[in-house]
Amino acid sequence: xxxxxxxxxxxxxxxxxxxxxxxxxxxxxxxxxxxxxxxxxxxxxxxxxxxxxxxxxxxxxxxxxxxxxxxxxxxxxxxxxxxxxxxxxxxxxxxxxxxxxxxxxxxxxxxxxxxxxxxxxxxxxxxxxxxxxxxxxxxxxxxxxxxxxxxxxxxxxxxxxxxxxxxxxxxxxxxxxxxxxxxxxxxxxxxxxxxxxxxxxxxxxxxxxxxxxxxxxxxxxxxxxxxxxxxxxxxxxxxxxxxxxxxxxxxxxxxxxx
Length: 258
Description:
Oligomer: single chain
Radius of gyration: 22 Å
Number of strands: 8
Distance between the termini: 48 Å
Order of helices and strands: EHEEHHHHEEHEEEHH
Structural class: alpha/beta
Shape: elongated
Mean pLDDT: 87
């Protein structure tokens, strides 16, 4: 078995698929380079990203997969998991080697795997949509740091662009060191330099950076939350099921309760 070592990028994974068919391999293990550990007498191939090869593979998948399954395939990549990458590789092989409609065969383990990874990515992006809390800065910008399990920023950009269409906002992924900036017209990807003045490790911005009305807005929201809460119907087990504790740090109504 040949070990394919790639950089964890979508382009790299597609390039690896191209090399698999070009080299007429029979068995391959796809390994993320940051997790690779050399073994003696092991045949390896370092995948060099190639845009042309990657585009050819993606075009081939687009011909065989519906737009829905194309999204599911890409959402699996956003999981950023070594096993997910291997499942994508095997799923793509299965699709290329089978007749059209193969993705509907839920008796195939690779189809099931992609479907399950897709559910996890969708669940995480849904939670980010629900639990994000913006803080208004003194210059009118709305800012929110997040630290999702998966790389869901590409999945939530359209939602927030439409929901807050008349506001400038930044959603910054502190785990992956990049974010989204919306200028009321377009959404752009930004890096740390764009928010260099902000300590991204902290959830709450310092008072000096906040709009004077932000503290009042936070207090009013907490009062509203507490006033609508019915102690007699408190069910913490169910509550934590829907709002896991790892998200509480982003919710100002939960401040001091985690």
